[in-house]
Amino acid sequence: MNITKHNLFVRKNAPLPGQIQAIWRSPRRQSSLVSRHSDASSVESPKQQPSQLHRISTVNLVRNIVLGKVFTSPFLFKYGVACLSKIANSKSAILDPDKNALLRALIKPMIYDHFCAGTNKLEIKRTLDYLKTMGFKGVILIYSKEIPAMPVEALNDPEPLIQDEDIDSWRDGNVKTLDMVEPGDYVGIKFTGAGPRVAQALAQDRDPPQQLLDAMSIICERAAAQGSRLWIDAEQQVFQPTIDRWTIDLMRRYNTHNQALVSTTLQAYLKSSRTTVKKMLQQSHREGWTLGIKLVRGAYIGSETRSLIHDTKTQTDDCYNSIATDLLSKSFPGFTPQDFPPIELFLAGHNSESIRKAYTLHQNLLQNGDTPPPIKFGQLLGMADDISGELLAMGDSSSQATENPATAPMVYKCMNWGSVRECMHYLVRRATENQSAASRMESTVGVMQKELRRRIGF
């Protein structure tokens, strides 16, 4: 890959105006997440030392600051999300950003390009290659097609079909996603993207249609053959118990030889999350397959039954941290390290304290001669860039201190792809998630403003 043609690389000793001009002449104007070199001169005063944000391009740094200001303003957030939701749920061609060029020009540069990988194979390849060049271990790529979040009573019982075109389209989209990732990368699978008949089966706790089973066999076997992994995304609780059941069937079939081809997603904001983990561990141990877990806090708080969710953020944080601790130390209640089933753990999150705790615990266990399960970390594209930078810096420090690759954190970036229209519901969720972390974002924006001032010499 020719990095200089791809993005914002400038000569090390070029004057700042030239640097800024080079950045804005990027072939993909909205650029990717991180840059190979700092934009500042290599000679820095103590007050101008690069922060852990030095990997982020100036274009994305500015965009982070602008969006941060929007998300932390109650007025701008309220009306901004209302507009995005209106567009996401509208069936009008006028409000379809794939058909309305003006609307697309407003949404794609500032919002879509910040949170999504691209609309076509070329854009996506540039983003994925660039992230890996910057030090990320891999990516998680998700095809964005899905049905909008809705109550179960809104799901009309569709007429049965011999061949469901929605499932065929969903299968083809996920196979295409696999074509765009490499060995070690993940593809995220969202079952509701397979259309209303699959959503109805999920809501009514039925078995998956045979057509969906056939599609998943194709997807799983393709992923296994090329050395990629799959994770099944969490969704609303009206669907989630059935998603868990279908996912366990997949793990039972494909997670053999102490490897997790398929991972489930566990949402720590649910009061039932620890019970769910225990049941999965027991089933994994009893049946002899590897349990793959992606641990998140949760992304559907705006459309869930509130009583199912922890009452406070502190309770959610405690639940997330305790699950991570018990899994890493193989001390989940009811198990000993000797009878603990094989697991693979992916910590997806934007809480720096949780990430530091888990990484420190993992390192201490390794140093003490224990054998904790493999651990990976991931953040969403366009979010928590400071945490991603900190993890990558930990990897740099670890590489200098030891030759053992197990001590370096494995850091991934997660992103959706699809047309602007297909990604609208995803963008609404990302906006809501950012606003819910407004207090943290205020401090992050301050750090980013400081980094921007460093680059332009103020």
Could you please describe the fold and organization of this structure?
The chain has 458 residues and is α/β, with parallel strands linked by helices. It has one domain (114-438): TIM Barrel (Alpha-Beta Barrel), CATH 3.20.20.220. The chain is built from 16 helices and eight strands. The chain has helices at residues 3-6, 16-24, 58-71, 74-89, 101-115, 121-133, 165-179, 196-203, 210-226, 240-254, 273-287, 313-328, 352-367, 385-401, 424-436, 438-456, and strands spanning 138-143, 186-189, 229-232, 262-267, 291-296, 343-348, 375-380, 410-417. An eight-stranded parallel β-barrel has the order 1-2-3-4-5-6-7-8, surrounded by eight helices. Helix 7 (165-179) links the parallel strand 1 (138-143) and strand 2 (186-189). The longest helix is centred in the last third of the chain and has 19 residues, at 438-456. It is globular, with a radius of gyration of 22 Å. The model is unreliable at 1-47 (pLDDT under 50).
In short:
The protein has helices spanning 3-6, 16-24, 58-71, 74-89, 101-115, 121-133, 165-179, 196-203, 210-226, 240-254, 273-287, 313-328, 352-367, 385-401, 424-436, 438-456; strands spanning 138-143, 186-189, 229-232, 262-267, 291-296, 343-348, 375-380, 410-417.
